[in-house]
Structures are given as C-alpha cells and as structure tokens.
Amino acid sequence: xxxxxxxxxxxxxxxxxxxxxxxxRQFPVDELAVLASRRSLGTEVSFGDKTLKTKDLDTFDFTGxxxxxxxxxxxxxxxxxxxxxxxxxxxxxxxSLYRYDAxxxxxxxxxxxxxxxxxxxxxxxxxxxxxxxxxxxxxxxxHDRATIKRVVVSTxxxxxxxxxxxxxxxWDQTKSIYNPVTDVPPKKFQKQIAFNVIPQxxxxxxxxxxxEEWKMMVETKKIVDxxxxxxxxxxxxxxxxxxxxxxxxxxxDF
Length: 254
Prior knowledge:
The protein is of the alpha/beta class and about 250 residues long. About 30% of the residues lie in helices and about 25% in strands.
C-alpha cells in the first residue's frame, strides 16, 4: 500500500531534492502531486524516470491526500499549510514557521521519533534548521550516555542554505573577480561572499546574536533537552554545498 503525496514548492532547490530522495529511496508513492506558485505553473520536474507538470498551489484541493511536504517559505506556509491540515492531509513543513509552536512536534527521526505522535494536535510536523539537525544527531547518543551540560558550536554554512539566489551570487561574483570588466554587488548577502566569510546568517536580534544562532539554541533545547545550554556562532562561507560544524561539548557525567 502506497501513499498519496504532495510536494509544495516542487520547482525550488529543496522541492527538487525532496523529489530526488523520494525516488532514490523508493518511497511507496501511489500518486504524486507537484505544486508551485502561479509564476512557475506548468513547469516540469523529474521524479525518477517520470516527468511531472506542476499544479497551482493556490487552488489545489488537499482532500484525500495523505501527506504534503512543504518547501515554500514561511509566508506561503502560513497561508496554505493550515488549509492542507484542515483537509486531513498531514503537513511536514521545511520552513521555520512552526518550529517553536508548543503544539507542533519538531522532529529529527534519529533523535526524537516518539515526539511525532503530537502531530495530531494540528496535523503539522516541523523540520528543524539544517545546522541544528546535523548537530543533534551527534549530540543525542552522547546526551543519553553522559548528560550534556553545555554546547559551544561554530557553523560554517554554504550558500546552498540561502537558496538558488545565494548560489548564483557566489558564482557570478567569483567570475567577476577574474574579469574586472564586470561588477556583481551583493544582493542576497550583506557583503561580497566570493573569497570571503560573513559572520551573519539571517537578521541580528536585540541581544546581538543572529536569528540563525538563536534558532540553533532554541531548537536544540526543544529536540534534545531544555536544560542544555547552547552558544552558537554561525558563519556563511564561499562554498556551494555542504555545511560544517565545530562542536565543543561539556558533560555532567564522565
């Protein structure tokens, strides 16, 4: 028995990767709907050896569909996810919108799979920040063995985390360095990203941390243990794909 699955935001980098992984892992899909905004309506995407044409997210009826993977950003998610959930379709959201809602589970399957049962409160499951996800997978077995007291983490995050615009900006700026005739000023990032590192991801908050750093602190507490103290420094690096982290962990026990 397979599932009726929806991909919302199928034409974006994340949506396309979702399609690739579903096909690669031979997820039991009986029927698949790929959705996009009206500006991308009709765009074709690949799913295994099939080519699918996108449908309009704004008018799509989620009734009768089992699950919807959302990769459309917080603004669109806020509009369409409750509509899908109300229709009985379980929403798995990739944006930051629902991560801090006490009634919505924030899930990393290798870490807190039991928490997924709380999805029934709103029919929505949240997916954590990418840097948080990779860190808590390493922290969970250590915490179970010796109880983590404090974590100090530095992340070095590729431009893939900022989407296609970020990757394009790195590519164009790198080319312009070797071709002085062209000039590519920063648009997606605060400063030139080519041959540079930027110690700012997302906006600055009142206490001087960035929102990316705040996300790592809050999400780790929600996923692993609220007692863990977390200090994070998040840096954007001129790499197309692949985040790195340096993590220092202090334990209660030996």
